[in-house]
């Protein structure tokens, strides 16, 4: 490809800014990143309260986040944030000891440990190739991509067992006779908003929580950033030759030999287009996302594929509690991580140790796909209401023994709210029918490339890594 090609990138989250960085490193400097809001970082969102940055979006990484390491090297930012502290609690506030080796159920813990070990071995052997970047070939029983390692060497092979990854993670674990591992994988998955194991294909669960990453979680070997995860992307943006153009409202994109974009009422012409914004088409009942077809001339093929995408309704709010009731650490409520407890608070996150008055952040989910409904039926069914679940969550907080501070009118005081378009994905049926192979076959058609969360997984590293992968493949 001509290194002077003019390239438009839609979105200045990790995927879009990462695409800019990797393009530059390949010698493509004629790119423009369009961002519709007045800031960069997307779901890495770290607002300042009382002089300190907090996390309303992404919180942490691990040492196997190699693409994040690329960004750290490019910007000089380091993971210098507070260590994550956590305890488990029952919904009534009592400490939940089920994972405490000293106090509870040793035979169960030994069984669990054996299954985790077996699972690690299975992933390495039976599911060889499961942890490469992206999903190319998986539904056809092969793998093709870049290995997840510092060197990210290209690998490929045939492995018919990989087809099992289309199954919901629950079925996948049962098939492999390691059902107990769900008890451990669930904490950084369901409570982090990625849905329930009876609805989400194993491919996604293991894209994020590959064995290496999961062991880092278990050993609490996690990274945070003092100035917030958003600061990594603010630094990246400021180091790029072409920082993002903020407040860019795109109303129309027409593709032909060239790509014509109408932005803030003016037309601009490009050679190539990389979309990291949501690909879902149609009306999206979400305040931050718009259907791709509301501004792009989507083809029939794109419409058919992108209509299969769904996302998680994962919302956060911040509140303060009475000083003397301040918890000693963040806490997980494992009993709230089931489809039956949809809408309840699953995690309460406290960023700084020994600092009362800082806000706690609560996390909840609002929709679940039942196994017996089709994707269409599920899509037509209503989700739990935003305000309704906020109220449920506030009640949870009180049951946990915390008292939220009140505002001047005597209502529970909410310091900040963040509603997102979270973890776009497809369900097992479409995954098994080759959704990814069909979308990957479209890369480059109409001068258009697709990146961002849906193409691999909704975490910082996977989105950055996919942008790197895309540029390696298509922008030689
Ligand atoms: C509460 C929460 C906790 C999380 N915790 C973690 C964590 O601990 N670790 C982790 O790795 N990940 C975490 N994540 C996930 C991580 O933040 C996302 O996966 C990542 O930010 C996705 O990057 P992206 O660039 O694909 O999308 P986004 O971050 O969503 O960025 C997309 C950007 O595109 C812009 N945009 C959208 N439409 C348009 C348009 N039409 N025109 C122009 N611009 C547009 C948006 O404004 C946004 O800036 C968390 C997310 C949330 C919300």
TrEMBL record:
SUPFAM superfamilies: FAD/NAD(P)-binding domain. Residues 15-455 form the Amine oxidase domain. One of its GO terms (molecular function) is oxidoreductase activity. It holds the Pfam family Amino_oxidase. Gene3D superfamilies: 1.10.405.20, 3.30.70.1990, FAD/NAD(P)-binding domain (3.50.50.60). This is FAD/NAD(P)-binding domain-containing protein.
């Amino acid at each position: 490809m001509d290194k002077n090609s003019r390239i438009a990138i839609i979105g200045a989250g990790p995927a879009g800014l990462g695409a800019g960085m990797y393009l530059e490193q390949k010698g493509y400097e004629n790119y423009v990143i369009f961002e519709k809001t007045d800031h960069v970082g997307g779901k890495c969102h770290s607002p300042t309260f009382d002089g300190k940055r907090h996390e309303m979006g992404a919180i942490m990484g691990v040492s196997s986040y190699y693409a994040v390491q690329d960004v750290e090297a490019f910007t000089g930012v380091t993971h210098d944030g507070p260590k994550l502290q956590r305890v488990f609690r029952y919904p009534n506030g009592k400490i939940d000891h089920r994972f405490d080796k000293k106090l509870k159920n040793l035979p169960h813990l030994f069984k669990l440990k054996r299954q985790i070990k077996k699972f690690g071995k299975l992933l390495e052997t039976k599911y060889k190739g499961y942890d490469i970047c992206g999903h190319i070939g998986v539904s056809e029983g092969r793998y093709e991509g870049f290995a997840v390692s510092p060197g990210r060497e290209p690998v490929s092979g045939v492995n018919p067992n990989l087809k099992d990854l289309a199954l919901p993670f629950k079925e996948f674990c049962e098939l492999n006779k390691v059902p107990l591992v769900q008890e451990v994988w669930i904490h950084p998955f369901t409570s982090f908003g990625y849905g329930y194991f009876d609805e989400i294909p194993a491919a996604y669960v293991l894209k994020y929580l590959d064995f290496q990453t999961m062991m880092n979680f278990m050993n609490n070997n996690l990274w945070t950033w003092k100035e917030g995860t958003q600061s990594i992307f603010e630094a990246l943006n400021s180091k790029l030759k072409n920082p993002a153009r903020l407040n860019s409202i795109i109303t129309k994109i027409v593709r032909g030999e060239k790509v014509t974009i109408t932005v803030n009422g003016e037309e601009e012409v490009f050679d190539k287009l990389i979309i990291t914004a949501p690909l879902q088409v149609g009306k999206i009942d979400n305040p931050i996302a718009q259907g791709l077809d509301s501004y792009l001339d989507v083809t029939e093929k794109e419409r058919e594929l992108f209509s299969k995408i769904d996302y998680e309704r994962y919302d956060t709010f911040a509140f303060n509690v009475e000083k003397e009731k301040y918890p000693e650490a963040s806490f997980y409520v494992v009993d709230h991580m089931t489809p039956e407890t949809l809408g309840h608070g699953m995690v309460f996150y406290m960023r700084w140790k020994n600092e009362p008055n800082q806000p706690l952040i609560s996390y909840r989910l609002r929709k679940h796909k039942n196994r017996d409904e089709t994707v269409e039926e599920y899509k037509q069914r209503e989700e739990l209401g935003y305000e309704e679940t906020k109220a449920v969550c506030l009640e949870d907080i009180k049951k946990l023994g915390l008292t939220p501070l009140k505002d001047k009118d005597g209502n529970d005081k909410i310091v900040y709210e963040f509603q997102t378009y979270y973890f776009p994905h497809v369900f097992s049926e479409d995954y098994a029918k080759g959704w990814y192979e069909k979308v990957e076959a479209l890369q480059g058609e109409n001068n258009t490339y697709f990146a961002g969360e849906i193409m691999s997984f909704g975490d910082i590293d996977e989105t950055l890594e996919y942008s790197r992968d895309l540029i390696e493949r298509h922008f030689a």
